[in-house]
Amino acid sequence: MITTFPSPEDLGLSPLHVVSVSGGKDSTATLLLALELHGQENVRAVFADNGNEHELTYDYVRYLEAAVDIPIKWVRRDFTELWWPRRDYVRDVWPTKGVAQEVVDRALRVFERGPTGIPFLDLCIIKARFPSRMAQFCTHELKIVPITEYLVDLHDSTGRQVWSWQGVRIEESAARRNKLQGTGACVLSYSEMGGGIHHYRPILRWPWQAVFEAHDAKGVQPNPLYRQGRQRVGCLCVNSGKDEILAWSRRDITHIERIDEWEDIVSEVSKRSNATFFPAPGDNDTARERGGIWQKVEWARTSRGGRQFSLLTDLAEPTACSSEYGLCE
Q1: Which residue numbers delimit the Phosphoadenosine phosphosulphate reductase domain (predicted)?
Q2: For residue 107, what are the CA distances in angstroms to 90, 121, 127?
Q3: Residue 161: closest CA among 4, 9, 45
Q4: What are the residues facing 198 on neighbouring strands?
Q5: What are residue 45's DSSP bridge partners?
Q6: What angle do CA 253, 258, 260 make, to 5 degrees?
């Protein structure tokens, strides 16, 4: 005899709508849309903390929780289980691969101190490198993995279908457009992950103006970093351009100092004894001299071509409000 069990839909259980919150404008607009369409009882919000976010973004996530009156679940990767096997690999395998004992010992001193508790830094130590444009492991390991674990746990504990709402827009970049455009006039606003979990991208075609209009309509302030001229409001990204690096160096010098410290630490666990936050193509022995964080800051202060310092850049002071989106007007 085959026993069948009623599905959640048969029991009258509606799907849960989970919005991945980043503190940015797009995810906030997505959360506001989900709440309007499905109500607080059917909406959940989750924030993946990589340990390298801007302090104002942390503050904004807390503000948003109060502003929309819905709990935002914070999730964080813990790399303890990967840390000690990596330590053992460095100790036991590196010498057999011709790595100098001096290099092995230096790396082991870092591992013996144990995980730092900062997910981004711990991941870079384990990888012995920083992410890059071609190896963007930070997004997968620090955002996608913990949020996916949360979605699976939510489905398993409630028995309800879970719709994962993602605040992405094809206007943001050519790469995103190519990935999510689909064919013809279609956009890939829906995909099925499996196991009762679905991906939904409701604002794929929204222009940025509509995103801020959604904030205004609900009386929700955008992340204050947008009023500092930022286009991205999370951590300083390894793909950041000249203007963004300059903005961080002028307003958030402590973040630059922290990255300098992290370059020291990750260099200690690197076989080549050199690791830079931003790419530094060329001779590895001079990578830190040419492409360390402070060298990138100096480059960001130069005019086009990267050879002459811009007098206007040197003299200019950060204004109280400077927005790429006209938020100061």
Answers
A1: 17-78, 137-236
A2: 8, 14, 12
A3: 9
A4: 163, 192
A5: 19, 72
A6: 95
- Measure Cα distances from 94 to 87, 100, 102, 329 in Å: 10, 8, 11, 58
Residue 3 has pLDDT above 70, yes or no: no
Checking DSSP bridges between strand 197-200 and strand 190-194, what pairing results, if any? Answer: antiparallel
pLDDT at 224 over 90: yes
Specify the 3-state DSSP secondary structure of 47.
Answer: strand
Give the sign of the dihedral formed by CA 319, CA 49, CA 253, CA 295.
negative
What tens digit of pLDDT does each residue of 85-137 get?
A: 999 999 999 999 999 999 999 999 999 999 999 999 999 999 999 998 888 89
Phi-psi region of 45 (alpha: psi -120 to 50; beta: other; left: phi over 0): beta
Question: Which SS3 state, helix, strand or coil, does residue 182 take?
Answer: coil
Identify any residues that bridge with 197 across adjacent strands, giving them in sequence order. 162, 194
Q: What percent of the chain has pLDDT over 70?
A: 83
Residue 200 · residue 164 · CB < 8 Å: yes
The tokens for 17 are 């709508």
Domains in the chain, start-ordered, CATH in brackets?
Answer: 16-77+136-225 (3.40.50.620)
Tell me if 65 sits within 8 A of 32, measured CB to CB. Answer: no
- Which residue is it, tokens 């996916």? 148
Tokens of 288: 């830190």
Residue tagged 């689909």 (tokens):
182
Q: What pLDDT, in 10s, does the model give residues 15-31? A: 999 999 999 999 999 99
Structure tokens at 148: 């996916």
pLDDT surpasses 80 at 179: no
* Sign, Cα dihedral of 66, 68, 71, 72: negative
Q: Residue 223 and residue 235: Cα distance in Å, rounded?
A: 13
The SS3 assignment for 122 reads helix
CA 94 to chain centre: 31
